[in-house]
Design a protein that fits this description.
The chain has about 350 residues and is mostly helical. The protein is about 50% helix and about 10% strand. The chain is built from 13 helices and eight strands. It has helices at about 35-50, 60-70, 75-90, 105-115, 120-140, 160-170, 175-185, 190-195, 240-245, 255-270, 280-290, 295-300, 305-345, and strands spanning about 5, 10-20, 25-35, 200, 205-210, 210-215, 220-225, 230-235. The strands form three sheets. A three-stranded antiparallel sheet has the order 1-2-3. A three-stranded antiparallel sheet has the order 4-5-8, with no helix packed on it. The protein has a two-stranded antiparallel sheet with strand order 6-7. A hairpin with a 5-residue loop joins strand 6 and strand 7 (about 220-225).
Amino acid sequence: MKPATKLPSGSWRVQVYLYKDTDGKRHYKSFTASTPEEAEYAALEWKLGKANEKPDDITVHEAIKRYTDSKINVLSPSTIKSYIGINKNYFTGALGNTKLINLNNTNVQIWISDMSAKLSPKTVRCAHALLTSALDMFAPDLKLKTTLPAKKKPELYTPSDDDIKKLLNHIKGRELEIAVLLAAFGPMRRGEICALTSNDIKGNIIDVNKSMVIGPDKQWHIKQPKTYGSYRKIEFPDFVIERISNIEGRIVSATPSQISNRFKRAIISAKLPHFRFHDLRHYSASIMHAIGIPDQYILQRGGWISDNVMKSVYRNVIDIESLKQNKKINKHFRNLQHDMQHDTKKTT
């Protein structure tokens, strides 16, 4: 607790330390009064109330806020930002105002059902996961037994080689071309591309060791990768390295959101089927799989944390190649059956 200070208005203020954010900035709760003694008393009363407060006395919304605050120095700024958004959007109603002591499976299940009527299964599951994490910290004895909406298989379009050729020809010479080359032939993520500098390039090897992410302050920050698996060295073909060889400092000056916006406009103007910048990673994964690269090397090159993550997100894309192979198989069997019929007619 900081000593009381006099404000220009004549009031006195006392600040109580709350937490330090990812950029090292300290956050405080302020108490103002007409005298320093009154301000100090209000701050002390608040501190004592927090110290004596039982976990069961806080609401779901407050529990999630405290859980988020406790993770602010160990999770990425984008994750913290998403937690804050989820708490604001989905835990300020009846469930959010429910005290933990009154929380049970019934009111959580009602909340899930209400959310499922208007939101995607993924959104509901993300909100439920955050709730579960907060309860593990503040109400560990409460074990939720709820039914979540079934996952929906994402409908993703994977660009083909022809799509990539057409796109690269359309954006040739622009900064966006560099981003597409790194994503499609890497595959690198937006944040990794935006954080990349000339110091990270040695010959044909690009060292992926950081990412540009947006923080709770809505500013872009260069941070270490979110997972250990994201640290990797990628060997690129000569034509990609040649395209970026004369650039000093940041290879791409845009932010991730600017890349997405420019990419969307380029897709429309090139008259290509709709797909996202992130789908360039799908393209890369599918091509690697199609040419026989083992999953373990696809994992390493793409920076996926586990085989389960890659398969759950990208298998529906990779299976496009399986469809092609199935057509070849069935064509062979149809030809075989046709030959058998022809031979039968000849014998009769």
